[in-house]
Recover the amino acids of this structure.
């Protein structure tokens, strides 16, 4: 029987950036003779079926490389630095807060140790381009145990797009999870309406009244729920209160429509639901300021196993939404179609600008219209706390070819195009 640990680290409440549902994939590995590296990203926990042999041996639900050997009869053992590796493209770029390296069911064939590196490469790099990229160590080489889910906290504020798992000298790892905060490129959202609550754009189910049967994080997960267990379901209430989930949106936005989906919930759908919103951009705290919440959708009757669609006219920015269900029950998904406000877009852009590597930040500024020297100087001024700090940093820039004037106007225009400030 397996004795795999279940990590309870706080970061496991964050989105798994390496989820296949979000678009993650294995783009390269040096060795997976025994078991495919793609198994690292399988959503469900690893399974073990004893005495199930293929032509390469016991079939393992994970990534397993062949046994390494030394270079000669006199040196039969691998060198200390010999290792195998797999590169994973994150489904969405973001700031990594924690890692799970799970050796479930690998007992006599787990690696002695492992390390994890990360890189930020815009666009759609090839394996050769990834090999030549600058990699940053997130987890130094650390001993592993067999049949264990190892949880490692990460302290790094950089936005990354790829991770590389290194195992020393060889062996098997069942699953890799990369938990963090989604941080989209704001330029990709300009002019678009999208689901402001969706995980893939940075929406987070940050609080819930109940998660007895299933997680509130399912509410804003990608795609449609295929079974009831892929939604959010509460236990049966025996009091006169109600259940709820609070979602922080991708950014301050104008919410135009909502979809409240009870698909698969037949005998346990809520009877009614309403939506309330909060605008944290004015300085309040949604967890403490009860009076600051306002109506987004009045209490409305729900039907079982139904996708309910509502057009909304909120008339004010929203950064957080709480869905209240009465009295209890389950929802498959909550979708909130809308667009970022100018202030919401600017706040997202500043978070992104502060988090990307220096070379990427400078390149984006140059593309927007700054000279290379100006882009480098403004990048060096990071982190920039707010729009006022951006304005002050831009004012400090001086042209290399004479008086300011038109240069100041050009700089302001370039910075506005990128950061909305």
């Amino acid at each position: 029987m397996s004795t795999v640990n279940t990590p309870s680290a706080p970061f496991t409440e964050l989105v798994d950036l390496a989820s296949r549902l979000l678009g993650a994939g294995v783009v390269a590995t040096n060795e997976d003779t025994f078991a495919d590296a793609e198994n690292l990203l399988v959503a469900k926990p690893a399974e073990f079926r004893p005495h199930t042999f293929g032509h390469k041996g016991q079939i393992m639900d994970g990534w397993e490389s062949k046994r390494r050997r030394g270079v000669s009869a006199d040196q039969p053992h691998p060198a200390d630095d010999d290792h195998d590796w797999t590169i994973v493209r994150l489904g969405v770029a973001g700031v990594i807060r924690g890692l799970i390296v799970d050796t479930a069911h690998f007992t006599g064939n787990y690696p002695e140790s492992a390390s994890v590196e990360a890189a930020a490469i815009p666009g759609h790099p090839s394996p050769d381009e990834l090999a030549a990229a600058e990699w940053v160590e997130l987890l130094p080489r650390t001993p592993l145990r067999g049949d264990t889910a190892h949880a490692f906290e990460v302290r790094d504020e950089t936005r990354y797009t790829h991770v590389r798992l290194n195992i020393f000298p060889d062996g098997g790892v069942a699953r890799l999870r990369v938990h963090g905060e989604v941080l989209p490129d704001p330029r990709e959202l300009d002019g678009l309406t999208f689901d402001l609550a969706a995980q893939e754009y940075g929406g987070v189910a940050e609080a819930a009244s109940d998660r007895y049967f299933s997680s509130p994080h399912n509410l804003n997960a990608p795609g449609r729920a295929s079974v009831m267990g892929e939604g959010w379901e509460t236990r049966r209430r025996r009091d006169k209160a109600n259940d709820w989930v609070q979602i922080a949106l991708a950014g301050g936005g104008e919410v135009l429509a909502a979809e409240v989906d009870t698909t698969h919930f037949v005998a346990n759908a809520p009877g009614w639901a309403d939506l309330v919103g909060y605008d944290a951009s004015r300085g309040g705290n949604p967890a403490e300021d009860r009076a600051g919440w306002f109506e987004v959708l009045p209490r409305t009757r729900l039907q079982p196993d139904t996708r309910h669609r509502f057009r909304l006219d909120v008339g004010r920015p929203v950064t957080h939404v709480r869905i209240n269900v009465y009295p209890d029950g389950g929802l498959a998904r909550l979708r909130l179609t809308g667009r970022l406000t100018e202030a919401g877009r600017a706040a997202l852009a500043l978070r992104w600008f502060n988090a990307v590597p220096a070379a990427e930040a400078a390149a984006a500024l140059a593309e927007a219209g700054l000279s290379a020297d100006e882009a480098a100087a403004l990048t060096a001024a990071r982190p920039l706390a707010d729009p006022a700090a951006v304005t002050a940093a831009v004012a400090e820039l001086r042209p290399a070819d004479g008086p300011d004037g038109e240069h100041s106007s050009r700089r302001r225009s370039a910075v506005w195009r990128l950061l909305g400030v």
Remarks:
- The chain has three domains: 10-182, 187-341, 356-419.
- The chain has a mean pLDDT of 93.
- DSSP finds six helices and 22 strands in the chain.
